[in-house]
Amino acid sequence: MPKLAITNLSKTFGAGPRAVTALQGVDLAIGDNEFLSLVGTSGCGKSTLLSIVAGLESHDEGEVLVDGVPVDGPGLDRGVVFQSYTLFPWLTARQNVEFALKEAGMRGKEAVDAARDHLKLVGLDGFADSYPRELSGGMKQRVAIARALSYRPKMLLMDEPFGALDALTRHHMQELLTRIWEQHRLTVLFITHDVEEAVYMSDRVAVMSNRPGRIKEIIDIDLERPRHYDLVASPRFQQLHRAVLDSIRAESIEVAQLGSALA
């Protein structure tokens, strides 16, 4: 049984002539401890799909199962990290992580110790008592990742988590997340517009079609682990990068041709 099974999923926003079908007939299965990235043109429904898996958005048809159980709302079995840091500004880094642990039922010294352990995991053990305003963008996102991992979810859902970071910080965060995942293994659904990021981090990359979104193609990333950033210069990495990029580019060309035909 896959950790996540999405079958014939469809979602439409609005009704009548203004209705927009975001997703139609989406089928996707992600295995236990697998890292899968979802890529595609802007507006193809990637974030909508992740929100449905997170239980933050309803769907019209089909089903979403985690360990065979239907998703009918948010749950502690799924940790979510967005592009915005979503930290409470009046709480320290440690308190932000503790907040999630308390929601999961952990209290007292156990919660304090777990929060410190997870901040150490993301390299922030020296900043536990710092407030978000005192942290850089990359450090804030580390706190968000520590918080999402702290209550041991079955799955981590990440929507462009490094999209707002500068290039160097982004590379550092990619290496950090890859290292954490390789050491602690859990199922990850990762949305990104960065093809290099998707290939570097993933076991498989799923390419979505234009709206209404569906899974157009899944590309296996047969690169060795553990991974290091020198890998991006290898011929195999470049070959996989080109395959994913070509698949997305074909969708972009289709959109452009459709626009010309309607002009």
TrEMBL record:
<protein>
    <submittedName>
        <fullName>ABC transporter ATP-binding protein</fullName>
    </submittedName>
</protein>
<dbReference type="InterPro" id="IPR003439">
    <property type="entry name" value="ABC_transporter-like_ATP-bd"/>
</dbReference>
<keyword id="KW-0547">Nucleotide-binding</keyword>
<dbReference type="GO" id="GO:0005524">
    <property type="term" value="F:ATP binding"/>
</dbReference>
<keyword id="KW-0067">ATP-binding</keyword>
<dbReference type="InterPro" id="IPR003593">
    <property type="entry name" value="AAA+_ATPase"/>
</dbReference>
<dbReference type="Pfam" id="PF00005">
    <property type="entry name" value="ABC_tran"/>
</dbReference>
<feature type="domain" description="ABC transporter">
    <location>
        <begin position="4"/>
        <end position="235"/>
    </location>
</feature>
<dbReference type="InterPro" id="IPR027417">
    <property type="entry name" value="P-loop_NTPase"/>
</dbReference>
<keyword id="KW-0813">Transport</keyword>
<comment type="similarity">
    <text>Belongs to the ABC transporter superfamily.</text>
</comment>
<dbReference type="InterPro" id="IPR017871">
    <property type="entry name" value="ABC_transporter-like_CS"/>
</dbReference>
<dbReference type="InterPro" id="IPR050166">
    <property type="entry name" value="ABC_transporter_ATP-bind"/>
</dbReference>
